[in-house]
Amino acid sequence: MVHIISAQHSICNRFLAEIRDREKQKDRMRFRRNMERVGEIMAYEISKTFTYTKCCVQTPINPAEVMVPAKSVVIATVLRAGLPFHQGFLNYFDDAGNAFISARRTSCVDGQVEVRFDSIYTPDLRGKQLLLVDPMLATGSSLVIAYRELLAQGCCPEHTHIAAVIASKQGVAYIEKELAGEPVTVWTAALDEALTEKFYIDPGIGDAGDLAFGEKK
Q1: pTM metric for this prediction
Q2: Phi–psi pair at 193, nearest 5 degrees
């Protein structure tokens, strides 16, 4: 299942507009904060799909019953571009476990992107809600590999939510094909039409990591 947040009008669209705007992108602090804000909104939307259990808390007057998530959450992101987006989820799921993936593109040949994974750090994922968050879902190949590597090291979560700020139609289609039958849901704030020859999303935003933290060598 694929959820597109911008399909319904909300304040999320203002944050998306600023994330895309090449003039506002010059303000790195605002860019990072807008990524974080979109993460917060998506965390809230994803939380609606969880199962809940009754919890009794003692107020200063009398006990009160509250429904709280029944399963633990692990938030996983790909360094470095995913950090501000990750923080938005962590602001809401502040007791979540965290997983970090060090990966980078090494080549783009014949329509295939080769990705090198240097290291993966993850807690036990068994029975948990895994949120695999990456701001840009372009070809989808790196996220599929990241998902499989996380499961290889952390075992199988109850459900995985793949979340992106902007996704391409090609990337979403690739994930649907490669992870068919898996307990996976895709969330994106916006769905774009195409990819460039270098496999960047078109119109997209450019390089999310560079915009957040400065250009790399």
Answers
A1: 0.91
A2: -80, -35
